[in-house]
Amino acid sequence: MDEIRGTAQGTAPVPLSVLDLVTVGAGSTASDALRTSVALSRLAESRGFHRYWVAEHHSMPGVASSSPAVILAHLAAHTERIRLGSGGVMLPNHAPLVIAEQFGTLEAMAPGRVDLGLGRAPGTDGATAAALRRTDRLNEGADDFPQQLAELTRFLDDDFPDGHPYARIHAIPGPVQATTPGGVQSPHRPPIWLLGSSGFSARLSGMLGLPFAFAHHFSAQNTIPALDLYRESFRPSEVLDAPYALIGVSALATDEEKEARRQVRAGALNMVRLRTGRPGLFPDPAEAETLTLSPMEEEFIQTWSANVVHGTADEVRAGLDDLQKRTGADELMITSHAHTGELRLHSYELIADAYGLPVS
Predict the structure, then answer these.
(1) How many whole angstroms separate alpha carbon 113 and alpha carbon 107?
(2) Residue 178 — pLDDT band, cuts 50, 70, 90?
(3) pLDDT of 239-254, one tens digit each?
(4) From CA 328, how far away is CA 340, in angstroms rounded?
């Protein structure tokens, strides 16, 4: 399926894509970050990156991607060819009908280039998840994910069986418009991807014959076991005749290795604060260099930084090549975090140049 399988460009071993968290650095605004996202989506399109996904997160000052569908609509207006999608929508936070309507609308805006990536985690802390879902029964949401997925799929395909309570409910824009007198409907519908950081979604996506995206960038120890489980569980479907797995990887290329280390340390400090209930803006690297940390915090920073492919363009290319060989990933989705939008943009430019990606 061409909507899923990409084509490697330049000397890249597999298709390269972009994951955007709309990072907000200290001293910048959300408007600044969103302008960077527009510039980055255009850069990604012009340099042959296959797709551009936006992640759903909530209650994090340094991540301005709480509303993926809104951001994707904005990016659709500024791009022409690159695939756009969610990496992902956290389905338990939403009614399936709402997501079907949102992504049906996006599909109408950008026909044939919208992906619907779905996760079952909240993308935030428990209290915020409870506020989003209007319930404190959060485990129930995760446990109900397969049922929510099935409901969403039926809304997208408009094929609830006769007698089902939702048989007369239609997600619009959607297939029902093609069967309405005088109606014509796009032949496309957003392909569903399952996202995960453990084995649950790996197994489920394999059993359903769906493409799978694994969050290597924050769950590296589970990457190979999850991909193995996905491939072992895979059953051919109308969507895919063979497994297709991408991995999200954190990577930052800079002109000088020292600058990459500074930015990665700042990003790791940001994660320390998030994990200890003190989320904030992406710190200035100067603060991260001078701040006194506890031994436990310092250990976390070292561990986190080791999972980020960083350095000069050649070093990042070598690291990405090695990661792809070790995992057998069919696609690499790169997320670059830095204090400024300019550094993030430059990182993708350097990676594109290192692989000889086309310029258009």
Answers:
(1) 7
(2) confident
(3) 999 999 999 999 999 9
(4) 32
